[in-house]
Design a protein that fits this description.
There is one protein chain. The protein is an alpha/beta fold and about 325 residues long. The protein contains nine helices and 15 strands. The strands form three sheets. Strands 6-15-14-9-10-11-12 form a seven-stranded mixed β-sheet. A six-stranded mixed β-sheet has the order 2-1-3-4-5-13, with helices on one face. Strands 7-8 form a two-stranded antiparallel sheet. It is globular, with a radius of gyration of 18 Å.
Length: about 325
């Protein structure tokens, strides 16, 4: 596994929009840039501020990504936003250039497809957790402070937080922390260690069985480490979650799995009264350590995860800690 060089004070962050552009969130985006520019140089590709279903057509999105990949001054590439249609860009990406110019590529939600392929196929670590507009706070929450430290190579232990945001308040400066954090463990105490991989389940489902699915080769290569899967669920129902995970299992993705950690579902929904997200996981994986409602994914605060890193996760009595090493 290749781990790119971490950031230094003189580093340049390049922002591109492989899915949606910033669109109507430009004021928030500008505030986030103010934060990043306190420590780093920041450049943007042409389509970052565009509105619409995608920032631009799939070929141009791939070319704008390549601009930053081949730019020797850029140390990290940060995705502008999430969305739904990044997947159709992958056929135009210059993967050889990414291999020749390895650097951190960072994003979350729809950028999953890009990050996942880079790690599982090119064997280059990627970072999941934030997009370019995530730092729009005057006083950064501890989770975002941790993110900036990890970008510098300070792989600190990330401990579960005390409260989380159930509903966002428009115009607020900071998270609206109203709900108590409690990591659910159907198996009670959990302690697992292995090679971490995963992303947004809503995006991972599109990869299964396509030319961009090199999961079997990846898990075979790292079978001696064992695999820890993390899943960030945006809007999949409990039933859809079950079927997607079942498809992954049937496709051989869960071989060598040592445990599964799932974030809080952003838009939870269940059609059957006798079903739930917890049942979806425990019925499919009755013998695996499982953690649910963890501080990862769309619902803040959230931790920063390194795809491809050896990761140790411990959880007991609703509290958890994640430690990664490279």
């Amino acid at each position: 596994m290749l781990f790119p060089k971490f950031l230094s004070p003189s580093s340049t962050i390049g922002i591109t929009a492989p899915s949606c552009g910033v669109g109507d969130d430009i004021p928030s985006f500008e505030k986030s840039l103010e934060t990043l520019k306190k420590e780093y140089k920041v450049i943007e590709t042409e389509s970052v501020r565009n509105k619409g279903r995608v920032s631009t057509n799939s070929l141009k999105r791939a070319k704008e990504l390549d601009e930053l990949v081949t730019n020797k001054d850029v140390s990290m590439i940060l995705c502008a936003s999430g969305g739904d249609f990044l997947f159709d860009m992958l056929k135009y990406v210059n993967w050889d250039n990414i291999k020749k110019n390895s650097k951190w590529i960072v994003g979350y939600s729809d950028p999953t497809s890009l990050l996942y392929y880079i790690t599982t196929t090119l064997d280059i670590a990627t970072i999941y957790g934030v997009n370019a507009g995530s730092f729009d706070q005057t006083h950064l929450h501890k989770s975002l402070q941790n993110t900036l430290e990890i970008w510098k190579g300070n792989l600190l232990e990330q401990h579960s937080f005390s409260m989380y945001q159930k509903e966002r308040v428009e115009g607020s400066d900071g998270y609206n922390l109203t709900e108590k954090v409690f990591w659910k463990t159907p198996n009670k105490k959990v302690s697992i260690k292995g090679r971490l991989i995963g992303g947004c389940l809503d995006s991972l489902k599109d990869i299964i069985g396509t030319p961009y699915d090199n999961t079997k080769q990846f898990i075979e290569k790292y079978k001696d480490d064992g695999i820890i899967w993390y899943f960030d669920i945006f809007a999949r129902t409990a039933e859809e979650t079950y079927l997607t995970l079942y498809q992954m299992q049937e496709a051989g993705w869960l071989k060598y799995c040592k445990g599964i950690i799932v974030g809080r579902v952003c838009f939870p929904k269940c059609f059957y009264e006798d079903f739930s997200y917890e049942k979806a996981l425990t019925e499919l994986f009755p013998d695996l350590p499982i953690i649910m409602d963890a501080d990862i994914g769309h619902v803040p605060p959230k931790m920063t995860l390194i795809n491809g890193a050896i990761t140790e996760i411990k959880c007991e009595n609703g509290k958890g800690v994640i430690k990664q090493q490279i």
